[in-house]
């Protein structure tokens, strides 16, 4: 089928279109396209340069990609014991059980592991998700951390701010504070721009301490305290609330 809209530059690029429809970040939607899972007007489309107009019918698998009338942006206060996933055959509790069914396809901006709690941001706007999660955008994430033993604050500060290699990855914090202002402490606040898997737990483990509680309290300028969200609850936000 002839793709006139891809030739004359009208419409929006297919990866952004799918991201806006809630199929994940632009990188994730590019993977869907390149793997042959997307059809445009009944034809498999693997070109990332194709543009989509309102007259096109786009399918991802057996699901039609329909742009929302208005983008959804929400903040969730995740409890422990809930997985940041749209589905896992090994674990029944996911964060989407805490949300209405109409929000089941929202993408997550910065996941928390099963045993961590705190602030999560979700949206069907792929561009917004990318803006929040990508390190180059400068979005800080702040965590409150409790340990099973006291360790010297200066030791933590020096190691975390300098950074170090762990399992082939460079781990680094932007800021670190002792919450009780003691020279040796079992309670810290850590600010990251990176988003490595179980990063804070790994960083403290390298210093011989085990994290007993980890709560994300801030993403960018949005804080749990100001949002005033009860654990397991959510609030809808204006997407503009994220930006400075």
Structure overview:
This protein is an alpha+beta fold and 244 residues long. The protein has 3 domains: 4-64, Roll (Structural Genomics Hypothetical 15.5 Kd Protein In mrcA-pckA Intergenic Region, Chain A), CATH 3.10.290.10; 73-136 and 222-241, Alpha-Beta Plaits (2-Layer Sandwich), CATH 3.30.70.580; 140-219, Alpha-L RNA-binding motif (Alpha-Beta Plaits), CATH 3.30.70. It contains 7 helices and 17 strands. It has helices spanning 4-8, 14-20, 26-34, 126-133, 153-162, 199-205, 224-227, and strands at residues 12-13, 38-40, 43-44, 51-52, 58-60, 63-64, 73-78, 107-109, 117-123, 141-152, 164-166, 169-171, 175-178, 184-192, 211-219, 222-223, 234-236. The strands form 4 sheets. Strands 7, 8, 9, 10, 13, 14, 15, 16 and 17 form a 9-stranded mixed beta sheet that branches. Helix 2 crosses helix 3. 30% of the residues are buried.
Radius of gyration: 21 Å
Summarize the amount of helix as a percent range: 10-25%
Report on the biggest sheet.
9 strands, mixed
User: What's the CATH class label of the largest domain?
Assistant: Alpha Beta
CATH overall fold name of the largest domain: Alpha-Beta Plaits
What would you call the structural class? alpha+beta
> Mean of the pLDDT scores?
88
């Amino acid at each position: 089928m002839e793709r006139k809209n891809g030739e004359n530059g009208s419409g929006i690029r297919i990866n952004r279109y799918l991201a806006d429809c809630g199929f994940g970040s632009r990188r994730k939607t590019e993977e869907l396209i390149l793997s042959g899972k997307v059809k445009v007007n009944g034809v498999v489309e693997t070109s990332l340069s194709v543009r989509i107009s309102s007259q096109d019918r786009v399918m991802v698998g057996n699901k039609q990609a329909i742009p929302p009338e208005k983008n959804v942006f929400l903040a969730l206060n995740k409890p422990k014991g809930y997985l940041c996933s749209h589905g896992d055959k090994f674990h029944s509790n996911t964060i989407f059980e805490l949300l209405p069914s109409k929000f089941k396809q929202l993408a997550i901006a910065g996941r928390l592991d099963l045993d961590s709690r705190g602030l999560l941001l979700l949206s069907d706007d792929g561009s917004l998700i990318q803006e929040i999660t990508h390190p180059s955008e400068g979005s800080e994430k702040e965590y409150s951390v409790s340990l099973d033993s006291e360790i010297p604050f200066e030791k933590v500060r020096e190691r975390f701010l300098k950074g170090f290699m762990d399992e082939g990855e460079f781990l680094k914090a932007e800021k670190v504070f002792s919450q009780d202002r003691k020279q040796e402490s079992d309670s810290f606040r850590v600010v990251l721009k990176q988003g490595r898997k179980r990063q804070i737990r790994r960083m403290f483990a390298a210093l011989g301490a085990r994290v007993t509680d980890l709560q994300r309290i801030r993403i960018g300028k949005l804080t749990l305290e100001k949002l005033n969200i009860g654990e397991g609850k959510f609030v809808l936000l204006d997407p503009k609330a994220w930006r400075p």
